[in-house]
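User: I'm curious what two different proteins look like when written out as structure tokens. Can you demonstrate?

Assistant: Sure. I'll show them one after the other, since each token string lines up with its own sequence. Here's the first protein:
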Amino acid sequence: MTTPLTIQGWYRLLKREYQKRLLRDKEFSFLFEDPPANEWIAIDCETTGLDVRRDEIISIAAIPIKNSALLTSERLELLVKPKQGLSAQSVRVHRLRACDLEQGLDAQTAAKEFLHFIGSRPLVGYYTEFDIAMINKIVYPILGIRLPNPQIDVCNIYYDYKFKQLPPYQQYANADIDLRFVSLMSDLDLPSRHGHDAFNDAEMAALAFVKLQELVRSK
């Protein structure tokens, strides 16, 4: 017996069908296929800044997750050559210089490689809203739509997990839960990598996702 769809479920289904109709290049129709069971892709990107409209992606990392295993040997790592120069501040943050990006891909080529790599699998990350917005910026000209893949933010899973452990009086008081990456990793007893590196951040998000899945299942 199938479970009836909720209002949210119907909305997601209708949105997905609408996106499929708008898809500009049918080469990428695989994005709407059913994803493989128990598979996800952890993602992260580094950028020239934090302004989605003005700044550009300079590196992308994507790590497959299958069941509870991180397939780091099968990861995707791309350097992207920006059209504009790098500021000194952005170099200090992500430690990528103009010379490091000289042989990088153009944004369109990087977008196509990324799309073929992720397929229809759900995307996992830490505070994914910004990363997805930046990726949508380079895939939209190709697809004519934003990424249709389901998106999972480990912050939301972690917040719900910690919130349910609080006593009722703290829940009603909107208790403050520390969602900083380093705090989240420490609380989950997971190793922290050097931040502002696309591969390191994607790997930490993947580790947190797998650990949180195990913790939620055990409750």
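Here's a second, unrelated protein for contrast:
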Amino acid sequence: MPVKPLSYYRERYIRHQPSPFCPGCGNGIILNCFARAVDELGLDQDRILCVSGIGCSAWIPSPHFNSDTLHTTHGRALAFATGAKVFNSDLTVVVFTGDGDGAGIGGNHLIHAARRNIDITTILVNNLSYAMTGGQIAPTTLHGSRTITSPYGNPENPFDLCRLVAAAGATYVARWTAYHVVELTRSMEEAIKNRGFSFIEVISPCPTRQRRIFGFRNPIYEVPSRIMEMLVESTYIRGREPKGHYCYAIPRAGVKEALEAVETELGRRDLGAGVRQVDHLRWGTVLRVDCAGPEELDSVKELLGEVPEVERVVGALEGKVELGVFVRERRPEFVESLREVMRRAGGV
């Protein structure tokens, strides 16, 4: 992927600066990736239609991206995009939506757009809540998370949106985070080139709301980097082996007490392992123990199981979110099939 200065993309593809996004928001990163993907593909901006609904992610294309945009009603972006694509099939139609807008209020449109396999690329920004309206529970909010509408913990289980959309019939399905900018940009290119319904879920930081969800007490300026580090710690890329040999120790009570106890035991046994405190989407604030090799890892796991301050030990990939491309396939595209039906019926 060629490296070009930000000024190049800003002059050609961005019509409005500065953005209204909060400091640390992932939406600016996603806009950056999209501009790079459009440039790499050499697309005609006059033939691009960006459609969005209501929510923070809706502001990614509107008013920022320099192409035609439809800023529509809540949950209805895919309905508008379907009408536009059917009317003018030559358009490159890209929908930007959020987890509340696209999977909650607009969830029915999402599964039927995938079922029809209409040639639309949907980029769903998942920040784990209805962020713009206060941080309420969304269909992707993690079980047990504290939000403005679940102060004692979320009792619901979240959607796995990639599985949902794949099962509904999408022909390109991928998931990345706002940290994985190179992979995300390439995936956007592949999604736009796919002749059918393409879906990319982007797990994105939202320091304003996720500070509450994850219980972070840092000063606000420290939260964005902490969330990014957590996204890296909590994900793995499909088909890639994890780097290093490590496991996680989940504290029974306080993290500080568990850290001191584990450090003491590791030093006493001289196992050559290092321990540090990390944040994990699934397990919360835990201890990561890195070892020199697989034999040392087995010994460390056995040791951790004997430490009273450790509730349980989990493997390197246990509870992590899988990233990558999950579906690449071909089947009849909706607009082409519709045109054929109209032809047989004696229409256009």
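A detail about the second structure: The chain has a mean pLDDT of 93.
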